[in-house]
Specification:
There is one protein chain. The chain is an alpha/beta fold. The chain has a single domain, classed as Rossmann fold, CATH 3.40.50. Helix content is 34%, strand content 27%. The protein contains 7 helices and 10 strands. A 6-stranded mixed sheet has the order 6-7-8-3-9-10. It is globular. The two termini are 16 Å apart. The model has no long low-confidence stretch (mean pLDDT 93).
């Protein structure tokens, strides 16, 4: 675990710069955050505030220019690229605004994809995938392809895919952005259950005040700086 037994994410004095010389610009500046395990946190700010950059750092798809990013006690900067890819595959889950399901795979196959990639899709795991689909209200839809599902059903499949391998952290980027109000609320209801029932830490980038109010904590970015919510 991290420095404390209940800490899932620790960022210490993280800055991220892009470009060189006169064209160099800061996407994040001296951001320090500690997020407890099994919490749901909203990441807020206007476009260009640094939300996407921060999600990319937490998702181990980018590295900070300076500072430290630790997840469950693992310093991401110390991992080689192969180990970083393995860390992403086994410890992190991702949910996107546009769902990003594989159109040629059924709902069952989309959910099972992380297990297939990790060569862990056994008969027992197939049963687990079926049980997870049922738990998320998708009974009877396992054999359908994404274009045969509603937006809300697709996002439920995406959430199932994100948690099927039991990650410690789920990163959600505007997960209700493509959904109508009622369906969005249903997805938020589902996300809220994950910390309590599965112990997953959820970090959700959102512009929605309603979504933010569902969270245990709100982190607000402005021009790459954390202006609110930094205290643990």
């Amino acid at each position: 675990m991290a420095d404390g037994a209940n800490e899932s994410i620790v960022l210490a004095h993280v800055s991220k710069w892009y470009g060189q010389g006169a064209s160099r610009s800061a996407a994040l500046t001296d951001v320090s955050i500690t997020i407890g395990a099994a919490r749901m946190v909203a990441l807020m700010g206007r476009s260009g505030s640094g939300k996407t950059t921060l999600l990319n750092l937490l998702g181990a798809v980018d590295r900070p220019t300076t500072g430290s990013v630790r997840i469950d006690g693992t310093e991401l900067a110390e991992l080689s690229q192969p180990r970083l890819a393995l860390f992403r595959r086994r410890r992190l889950g991702y949910v996107f605004q546009a769902f990003h399901l594989v159109p040629s795979l059924t709902a069952q196959e989309n959910v099972a994809l992380p297990l297939m990639l990790d060569r862990k899709y056994s008969r027992g795991k197939r049963a687990d995938v079926s049980a997870l689909l049922a738990r998320l209200g998708l009974s009877g839809l396992a054999a359908r392809y994404p274009d045969q599902l509603s937006g809300g059903q697709q996002q439920r499949v995406a959430i199932a895919r994100a948690i099927v391998h039991q990650p410690s952290v789920l990163l959600a980027d505007e997960p209700t952005g493509n959904l109508d109000v009622q369906t969005g609320r249903e997805i938020l209801d589902l996300l809220q259950t994950l910390p309590r029932e599965l112990g997953v830490t959820v970090v959700m980038a959102t512009h929605s005040q309603e979504a933010a109010e569902r969270c245990d904590r709100r982190l607000v970015l402005e021009d790459g700086r954390l202006i609110s919510g930094g205290a643990a």
